[in-house]
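Subject: for your reference before the review

Hello V.,

The reviewers asked for a structural picture of the protein, and I figured it would be easier to keep everything in one thread rather than splitting it across files. Below is the amino acid sequence we used in the manuscript, unchanged from the supplementary table.
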Amino acid sequence: MKKIISLMLILSLISLTVSCTQYHAQGAGAGGVVGGIAGALLDRKNPWRGGVVGAALGALAGATLTDVSMRASQEAAATGKPVQYATEDGRGVYRAEPVGYNAQTKCHKVHEIVTESGKVVKDQIKEVCEGEKTEQRY
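And here is what came back from the structure prediction:
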């Protein structure tokens, strides 16, 4: 039974990574690594089980956070207005504010701020471009 559950978690992790965009895959990968390490450390009786469960949950959380970040920054760039998402309990807040636009590169700059329980967890400037690069050069 344990092998079946582990196999299902591994397959769902692989399908999550394969079916996502590059950004989702990066978020899922980072979340999976952190979750796997944390799960292995927390499950002292069976670190493999804890690692697999932690990796699956971490990958899902990482991909979800990446999706929220991408959508909010694209919405802020498109509308020219600040966008804010918050968890139901209000502890986690994601805010994206448009900063500027470069007509030459067709890219908007968006200021992202993520807070958790009132403390800043992430504060960065992100570029959101109108087109997609399909070749090695522009």
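For the response letter, the relevant points are probably these. Helices lie at 2-18, 22-42, 47-79. The CA atoms of residues 34 and 58 lie 7 Å apart.

Happy to draft the paragraph if you're swamped.

O.
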